[in-house]
Design a protein that fits this description.
Elements lengths: L1 H16 L26 E5 L12 E8 L4 E8 L4 E10 L4 E8 L3 E10 L2 E10 L4 E10 L5 E9 L2 E12 L9
Antiparallel strand pairs: 1-2, 1-10, 2-3, 3-4, 4-5, 5-6, 6-7, 7-8, 8-9, 9-10
């Protein structure tokens, strides 16, 4: 109780001075405990560095991560090149599977169902593709926030029975960026 008496004036001082400080988890919106490792990505919009793929044009990916369904899920929206392609994923805890799972829906003619695991501050993903994804049947990925505040995404895809590197992308937080769907 004595801590509460000290904590309240401190909170008022912080508010008056305009200091941003996270004093406890009590200040954070509720999130399913299984999804807590994703909190560093939440409530942020990220934009990739333009990159020229082999034989293609430069791509820019904008992605938004947000708490959904009263903290029982996370919604990830993204679009490439101002809506030329986009997708939405819903990430949640599946009690029956005892795993963090997600479903990813795209503006193309495929969807995926995946799982996430967390190890050493990284998100490890594995998804199975349904529909026409140019011969890709599975995708694996690693997501990691770097000390400089960027986040790295590396993926590989199973295409025609062989695993091959797919993407390596760096994202920076970009609050003014917007996910676009046409």
């Amino acid at each position: 109780m004595q801590l509460m008496n000290i904590y309240s004036p401190l909170r008022i001082l912080i508010a008056v001075c305009g200091i941003s400080l996270n004093l406890s988890a009590v200040d954070l919106p509720r999130l399913d405990s299984h999804l807590e490792p994703l909190r560093p990505w939440l409530d942020k919009t990220w934009k990739s560095q333009p990159k020229n793929p082999k034989g293609g044009k430069a791509t820019t990916d904008v992605t938004r991560w947000e708490r959904a369904l009263n903290g029982n899920a996370i919604r990830i929206l993204h679009s490439i090149n101002d809506g030329a392609y986009g997708g939405e994923a819903i990430v949640r805890w599946d009690e029956k599977k005892q795993a963090v799972v997600y479903d990813y829906f795209t503006t193309a003619s495929f969807t995926t169902a995946g799982t996430m695991t967390f190890k050493d501050g990284k998100i490890l993903t594995h998804e199975v593709v349904t529909g026409d994804a140019d011969g890709v049947s599975e995708v694996r990925g690693i997501f990691e926030i770097s000390p400089d505040g960027t986040f790295q995404k590396r993926t590989e895809s199973l295409k025609n029975g062989a695993w091959q590197p797919a993407t390596e992308t760096t994202y920076r937080e970009e609050p003014s960026a917007v996910v676009v769907f046409k």
